[in-house]
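$ fold --in a.seq
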Amino acid sequence: MKYAHLVKLTAFSHEGEDSESIRDAFLRFFPFSLEENKVILNKTAAEGFHGRKIAVFGAKLAKNSLISRFLENLLSNLDEIQKQKTLMQLDSRLDENLDFFLRFDKDSWIEENKLVLTDSGKCFHLKISIAAFPKKREAALNVIMDLFGKVKT
């Protein structure tokens, strides 16, 4: 089953943070080599408040096989508590374009290799464009529930 048309992962590395450890943690989201699969890892520079320098890491997946492998890896790294939390917050995480958003705590992933949902800005941002047919909110919610292992009755 096709769950998504596009997956986009983004992370910010602020001045004073270890940019290399953030990059390494970013790459752990992908159970395959980005380079071998011709996926571009973007690193751009930005300026934050008070002139602080920020490195922005980003990658997009559009190929179905890579999206499937990415989502399998993501789900295998989420414990049941995080999956249940996602399902409980499902409605607020899906926008009108049927894009599904998750944020994972940066420190937990870097230091403990554990995905923990967060609402803070110190995180890895994940955007999943849900493949729903018909392109309606209810169909997208069902796709997400199926993906997280709970089919709506």
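$ fold --in b.seq
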Amino acid sequence: MACPDCGAPTLAFPVPSEYREYLPGDAAGAEVCTDCLVLRPVDDPPAERPDLTALSDAVPSNDEAAVPFVLLVGLLPSLVTNRSEISDLLARVERAGTDPLLALDRLADDPSVDPDTDLRGRRRQLEQLL
């Protein structure tokens, strides 16, 4: 599938039930653009989760951290609106053994992606909010 914002390919994945509350609507999965990193809910995701590190080496390779991290990145454009959800996801990523702020730094430095959101600016704002 192609991203409607930038035309790059997207990566669809199932979202475990414990994370679905972080998606709008009742979607069973999500897709993320491999370039601009915009996240959208999808009703018919693949049955198996793809390797989310295909987005970037900055995405945690640990499955327990990868999904909440990608959801976190997808919520960053609306930081104020999603403050509680972002805080929850940061904690989940950290509990899974990954430093989420360091991973955001690495993602911001990755030349293979061109995020729609200023990840460095959002990271600074996260530090102030949390």
